[in-house]
Design brief:
Elements (H helix, E strand, L loop, with lengths): L1 H20 L2 E5 L5 E4 L9 E3 L7 H36 L1 H21 L4 E3 L6 E3 L2 H20 L1
Antiparallel strand pairs: 1-2, 1-3, 4-5
Helix pairs in contact: 2-3, 3-4
């Protein structure tokens, strides 16, 4: 019985390794349709497809890049939608929009002056980062200038 089990295991291992070693090909026909097969076509170029299980790392990178691009596109659309809504609000009721903007500047300045640690979302990476003193001073200066314009109105 042990010999039969050993022989069966070796036979299965031999068939498995030959199936893994088989090459598959990919090609695109004249109509732009992608085909896959064990035999490459004789009349056109075909590339070998890597069928190993661990070969998907480049595919994983491509999927990750695609997801990042989709997230960036979604964020850009959301920002455009917010800008459009703010523009519409400003055109419908300019005084209320101006007051709201000024209140936001005042709140930002208070946070920058009073909180020991201030974080913001990095517009390029989308990650949260702690503001250093130079960034903090620059943002406070911008908020003060904006508040001066609010007082002029």
């Amino acid at each position: 019985m042990k010999r039969f089990s050993l022989l069966l295991g070796i036979t299965l291992l031999a068939f498995t390794s030959s199936a893994i070693a088989e090459k598959f090909y990919k090609w695109v026909d004249e109509n732009g349709v992608t085909h896959y097969g064990a035999q490459p076509p004789s009349n056109q170029d075909a590339s070998v497809v890597n069928t190993r299980a661990n070969a998907s790392s480049s595919q994983g990178d491509a999927i990750e890049a695609l997801n990042e691009r989709r997230e960036a596109d979604a964020k850009q659309k959301e920002n455009a939608r917010k800008a459009e809504a703010e523009s519409r609000k400003a055109s419908e009721n300019p005084d209320a929009a101006s007051e709201e903007r000024c209140a936001g500047h005042k709140k930002n300045l208070e946070i920058l002056q009073n909180k020991p640690i201030v974080r913001r979302e990095n517009p390029e990476t989308g990650e949260m980062e702690v503001l250093d003193q130079e960034q903090r001073e620059e943002m406070m200066s911008e908020a003060r200038k904006a508040l001066e314009k609010c007082e002029e109105m």
